[in-house]
Each structure stands twice: as structure tokens, then as C-alpha cells.
Write a structure and sequence with these properties.
28% of the residues lie in helices and 22% in strands. With 680 residues, it is α/β, with parallel strands linked by helices. The chain has four domains: 102 residues, 3-Layer(aba) Sandwich (GIY-YIG endonuclease); 178 residues, P-loop containing nucleotide triphosphate hydrolases (Rossmann fold, 3-Layer(aba) Sandwich); 180 residues, P-loop containing nucleotide triphosphate hydrolases (Rossmann fold, 3-Layer(aba) Sandwich); 88 residues, Alpha-Beta Plaits (2-Layer Sandwich), CATH 3.30.70. It has a seven-stranded parallel β-sheet, sandwiched between helices. A six-stranded parallel β-sheet has the order 13-23-22-14-21-20, with helices on both faces. A five-stranded antiparallel β-sheet has the order 2-1-4-3-5. α1 packs antiparallel against α8. The longest helix has 18 residues. The radius of gyration is 27 Å and the shape is globular.
Length: 680
């Protein structure tokens, strides 16, 4: 990691009026450097101020990172700060320190990191309108608890609350339905009572409305700021400003909420901490979960990582003593128990149109009892492939090395990687056969099959195609909770965070693909998603049942799932990772390149590997094409970098990034991904 500079000055007089006063400014440019600007004697500038400065032939918004009276730029060549923006709070020192850490650890320019963390309106040259004299929001610390805490919940609250005012990391390991949210609410209530701010991170936008409703009900007088990428610029900017001014006492959002400044931060909660959505996959490729732990250290406050299926990195941190584990082993609702998990052997039960007889019978029984069933298949669309049985042709994306997915509702073929789409061909373009067949199943085809099998049932499908608008999704979920649906068909959008009182049966289709994946994280992810979707069943007094269809019924993963033994599964996985030399026992980074031709990308990676001599603990593998080699008309390749020493890896990556930012050819798109989760 690049060394952090000395403490930042926040004194408004840190730039004296005599001589040449200099502000070192971060700008959003693809260079690993800051830029020096002269400050007029009459102008007051502080570290953390947003400023307007000339850059080339235009002006840009930047952020003052350092203040000094010495610069290597000659005074006669130095341009001056044009204006200081006072339409928003200055960025505090701990926030700037967080940005320095993110830029250094994830190997991105500091200017890009700082500017991209601001809402779009604060990056604009146009000042914000002056704040109107609004009626202040109601204040107070009223707390409407959902229900009385169980003894285990009381213990969890007491243990975390005892560390208020200092850094501590807790793994809140609670089975599905154990009441982790209620623990969060009681901890937040204590933070608000003391005048602090709390931050709650969730992995998906779809989970925000449900938690928002819970929080507004629990804290009717507290100002709540919502932050996620689905907000319009005005709403996002307003939430950011309320958080930065300390007006919003509770911040709820997805990974970008972690980047908001909070002057009185006293608690961080990361719900569903295992979820891969916390890892940004473009620009600054940061892990919001890991960054939140570092931020809690800076703020001197506790952080709670809540989940039923911890990531193996988090479990390893618990096993090695870095995190403290708090277990909630039972469901919170009186009489509610964990669902019974049955493994359906497809070698013995031949499925009809993808559904095993026992699953069909289970759905029929729930319909008779006026209960709900969920059929889970983590593949949207009608079918993953449209093919010709006569010659073997399959519909592929012209821009990617991937198949087009058939969407029957609007009769289109879509690429789920680049977004390209086309009409369904009337005949095979290779042999002219008009009898093209859908191969495999997606949510749309499962919905069609269930409609034919249960014609009177109210069937609701929820995936990214059916839930494009947030308001419509919220309404649909509320209708499900009210019992206005009989059978649900869905992807991971339904697997986590939702509480459907009448749902007692979950059927899982197509779980086997992860068991034969080359991704070493596939089993971990499969166990997590199966545990999460299974946890939707039987969350009240009525017992729940889960049927998992598979052709590998003897796989150890299913044995652990059946006995709800996450600890045994995780420890076995860690032992395998250690023997194979995979994270968390080694540290990884990936250098990736995109170019018009694959040879160009591979040559760039080979040349890059020779630019810096790696220290002994760092190993560089040969560059290889990505699994999906072509995406959006660009050929993609990557090389893997591993080390048993994180400091050695960071030092090597820092030196490599410095060289690449200076020398990389313009026709190459490249980036470094530190702690990568995806290798496709």
C-alpha cells in the first residue's frame, strides 16, 4: 500500500496570504498525481473544500487535499484557484483519509476516487441553489420496537452496545428469521439517543424499501437519508447533504452510501455482508464491506456484519480472532423453526418440464391449504439458448462470446452481458430449419409451465425483467405479503431479506451448475443462496419445507444444507482453500485488459508483467483470455497476481500502477482489480 501522507490541515488559515500560497487539488483525471494551484491572498481555502480550477482549456471542480507554501511548479507558471464552493459542507479529514486509503489499496488515482465519491451535482461547475428556509424535521428519539427481544437478541445488543465509542468488529451470525434486523434497530436507537449517526448498508436496491419502512416506523422523528444508484440526482444530492451536515441521523443504502461523510458516525451495520453486490465492478473496484471496516476504525465505532451465511473471509477473520462472533441460533417468532430440507434425486424422480413430481405435489398441497410456494431458479428469461436441432446452430451474441437468452414475453433475444438484443429468427440462419427450439429453462418458462399445471393459481414472477421499476416492485412485494399470490417464481431478488408470512414451501431448480463450476467460490455462493432462499419458508408457526432438485444428492454441500450446519461447511471449505492456496490464505489481484483484438490484450499483459520485478512473495501467472472472451465488441484477457504477503502485493501493485498510468497505450483499456470476486 502506498504510504499515507501526514495529517491533513483543516485550519482555514493554513494558506497564509503572504508569499505564494498553494492548494494541492484532486481532479478526476486518469493520472496518479495531484495538481498545485496558487491561492489569492484574499481567498480562504481549507483542506476538504471544493474548488473550481482551470485545467487545460476548461474549468473543473476539484477538492483541496493538502495545503502548503512550497511547490515544485514555478510561481510564474502556476494557475490560480478560480473559486471556492461554499454550497456544501467541506469534506472532513476522516473522509479524506478514507479516500486516500481506497485509492491506495484499490490502485486508482486519488482524484478519480475523491470526485467519483461525490454526488453528480457536487461535481458540476454549476453551484447548488441556496438552501431554503425549510421547516425543520421533527426531532426526538422516540423508538417503536417491533417486539420484545429474545434472550439471544438482548445479549447481542448488550455486547455491541458495550463497545460504543471504540472500534470493534462483530459478526452477527443469525439463522434466517432470527431477528437480526430487530438487533440493528435497538442498537440504532441507542446511537440516536446519544446524538450519533448510524449507517446501514444493504446489498440490493430491492431490499431498501422494506428496511426503509421498518426504520421509519421504528424512528418516526429521526431524519432518514436513503442512498442508492437508483435515485435521481436531486434526491441523491439531498440525502448526501443531510448526511454531511449531520441532519440525517440514520443513513440507509447500498454500497455507495458507504462513501457519504457522516460527522457523528457511531455505528455501521452491513446487512447480508456475504453478498457479492458489495463489490463494485467498475471504476474504483472497492468492497464496501471491507471499506466499511476500515471506516469504522477511522471513526472509532463498532461495525456489525450481519448474515446467516458469512463469507469465508469474514468467517476466517472470526476464526483467527479479528472479529467477535455473536450467534442467533433460533428464529425469533415464537413457534417458528428452521425449514426441513429435502434433497430430490432427479435420477429417481424424472422431472416433467423441469419440475419433479414431489415438488408438483408439494405445490398442490399448499394451494389446498391456501399457503404460498416459491419456485426458485436463478436464471431469468424464457430459455438460456435458442438452438437448431438439425445442424447444432445456437443463437449467439455478435458482440460477445456468449449465448443470447430467449425472452418469450416480447419475443426477443437478449445478451445478459452487453445488453444487445434482436428479434427471434424465423428460421435457422445456417440450414434454414424453421423448427427452432428453446433449450434449458428460465423464470419465464417456469412461469408458463406452472400456469399450465395449476391454471387457477395466482402466479407472480419476480426477476430483473419484471421488476424494472422500484414502485412496481414495492407494490408487488406488498401484495405477496398480503397473500394476494399463490405461487412465486423468482431469482435472487426473492432470496434474501423478504418476509412472506404465508410462504411454507420453497422449490429450487437448476442448483447443480455451481457444483461443476471452475470458480473456487461457486460452492460458497451456492450454499449461501440456497440457505437464503430456504429461509423464506416457514417464518411463522406453520412449518416450512424446502425441496432441492439435483443430480448430485450425495454432494457434501447438500448434507450441510440439510442439517443447517454452516459452521461445518465453512470450516471444510477453508481447509480446502488452505490446501489449494486460495484466499483468504493468499491475497489476489487481477490485471485485466480489453482491446479490439485478443492478441493485443494478451501482449499488453505480457509486457506489463515485465515492467516491475516482483518481490519474492509475489507470483504472477501467465495472461489468459477471459471465460467470456469477447464482450461488447472488445476482446478481454487477464493475468492473476497472488502473494502470501499483503504488504508485498500492495507495494508491487503500487509500482505497477504508477508505470501503467504513465505508459499504457491509449488503445488498451485496463484496470487492476484487488481482491477480485469475478473471473469471467
Amino acid at each position: 500500500m502506498k504510504p499515507l501522507p501526514t495529517a491533513l490541515s483543516t485550519d482555514p488559515k493554513s494558506l497564509p496570504g503572504r508569499g505564494i500560497s498553494v492548494a494541492r487539488v484532486a481532479l478526476d483525471v486518469p493520472l496518479q498525481k495531484l495538481f498545485d494551484y496558487a491561492v489569492d491572498a484574499a481567498m480562504q481555502v481549507r483542506c476538504g473544500d471544493r474548488v473550481v480550477v482551470p485545467f487545460g482549456a476548461r474549468q473543473r471542480v476539484g477538492v483541496v487535499i493538502e495545503a502548503s507554501v512550497a511547490s515544485e511548479v514555478p510561481a510564474q507558471r502556476m494557475k490560480s484557484v478560480a473559486a471556492v464552493r461554499d454550497d456544501a459542507p467541506a469534506l472532513p479529514a476522516d473522509w479524506l483519509e478514507l479516500m486516500r486509503f481506497l485509492a491506495a489499496y484499490y490502485q486508482r488515482p486519488l482524484g478519480e476516487t475523491v470526485i467519483s465519491a461525490l454526488p453528480p451535482r457536487l461535481r458540476s461547475l454549476k453551484p447548488l441553489p441556496r438552501k431554503s428556509q425549510e421547516t425543520p424535521a421533527a426531532s426526538g428519539h422516540a423508538f417503536n420496537a417491533g417486539h420484545a427481544l429474545t434472550p439471544h437478541q438482548q445479549d447481542a445488543v448488550a455486547r455491541v452496545a458495550a463497545s460504543f465509542g471504540k472500534f470493534a468488529a462483530y459478526l452477527l451470525h443469525g439463522v434466517t428469521g432470527s431477528g437480526k434486523t430487530e438487533v440493528y434497530l435497538h442498537l440504532i436507537a441507542e446511537v440516536l439517543r446519544k446524538g450519533g449517526q448510524a449507517m446501514v448498508l444493504v446489498p440490493e436496491i430491492s431490499l431498501t424499501p422494506q428496511l426503509e419502512g421498518r426504520f421509519r416506523q421504528a424512528f418516526p422523528h429521526a431524519r432518514l437519508a436513503i442512498m442508492h444508484s437508483g435515485l435521481e440526482d436531486v434526491a441523491r444530492t439531498r440525502s448526501w447533504l443531510e448526511a454531511a451536515r449531520g441532519e440525517a441521523k440514520l443513513v440507509l443504502g447500498t454500497r455507495l452510501a458507504m462513501l457519504a461523510p457522516l460527522p457523528a458516525l457511531a455505528l455501521i451495520v452491513v446487512d447480508e455482508e456475504h453478498d457479492a453486490s458489495f463489490k463494485q465492478q467498475e471504476g474504483l473496484r472497492y468492497s464496501a464491506r471491507d471499506a466499511a471496516v476500515y471506516r469504522a476504525k477511522l471513526a472509532g465505532c463498532p461495525i456489525v456484519l450481519g448474515t446467516a451465511t458469512p463469507s469465508l473471509e469474514t468467517w476466517h477473520n472470526y476464526r483467527t480472532g479479528r472479529y467477535e462472533r455473536i450467534e442467533l441460533a433460533e428464529r425469533a417468532v415464537p413457534g417458528a423453526t428452521l425449514p426441513r430440507v429435502r434433497i430430490v434425486d432427479l435420477a429417481r424422480e424424472a422431472p416433467e418440464h423441469g419440475l419433479a413430481p414431489s415438488l408438483v405435489a408439494g405445490i398442490a398441497a399448499r394451494l389446498e391449504r391456501r399457503q404460498q410456494s416459491l419456485v426458485f431458479i436463478n436464471r431469468r428469461g424464457y430459455a438460456p439458448v435458442l438452438a437448431c436441432e438439425a445442424c447444432g446452430w445456437a443463437a449467439g451474441c455478435e458482440r460477445c462470446s456468449a449465448r443470447m437468452v430467449l425472452h418469450a414475453s416480447d419475443r426477443r433475444l437478449r445478451c445478459h452481458h452487453c445488453g444487445a438484443e434482436s428479434a427471434i429468427p424465423s428460421a435457422c440462419p445456417t440450414c434454414g430449419n424453421v423448427d427452432l427450439k428453446p433449450m434449458g429453462r428460465g423464470t419465464q418458462r417456469v412461469e408458463e409451465t406452472l400456469s399450465q399445471r395449476f391454471p387457477g393459481a395466482r402466479i407472480v414472477r419476480i426477476d430483473r425483467d419484471s421488476a424494472r421499476r422500484r414502485a412496481e416492485l414495492e407494490q408487488t412485494l406488498e401484495e405477496i405479503r398480503r397473500g394476494e399470490a399463490d405461487i412465486l417464481v423468482g431469482t435472487q431478488l426473492l432470496a434474501k431479506g423478504h418476509d412472506f408470512p404465508l410462504l411454507t414451501l420453497v422449490g429450487v431448480l437448476n442448483a447443480d451448475t455451481a457444483l461443476v463450476s471452475t470458480d473456487y467460490r461457486a460452492s460458497e455462493r451456492l450454499f449461501a443462496v440456497l440457505s437464503q432462499v430456504a429461509g423464506r419458508a416457514g417464518r411463522r408457526a406453520e412449518p416450512g419445507e424446502v425441496l432441492v432438485q439435483t443430480r448430485y444428492p450425495d454432494h457434501p454441500l447438500f448434507a450441510a444444507l440439510r442439517s443447517h450446519d454452516y459452521a461445518g461447511f465453512a470450516d471444510a471449505q477453508l481447509a480446502e482453500r488452505k490446501g489449494a492456496g486460495f484466499p483468504p490464505f493468499v491475497h489476489e489481484a487481477s490485471l485485466r485488459a480489453e482491446a479490439a483484438k485478443l492478441d493485443t490484450a494478451l501482449r499488453f499483459l505480457r509486457d506489463a508483467a515485465a515492467l516491475v520485478v516482483p518481490p519474492a512473495p509475489v507470483r504472477i501467472y501467465d495472461p489468459v483470455p477471459n471465460i467470456i472472451t469477447r464482450r461488447a465488441d472488445l476482446e478481454r484477457a487477464q493475468l492473476l497476481i497472488q502473494s502470501t504477503s499483503r504488504p508485498a502485493l500492495q507495494q508491487f501493485l503500487s509500482e505497477l500502477a504508477d508505470v501503467l498510468f504513465e505508459r499504457a497505450p491509449r488503445q488498451i483499456r485496463w484496470h487492476l482489480d484487488v481482491d477480485p470476486l469475478e473471473f469471467d
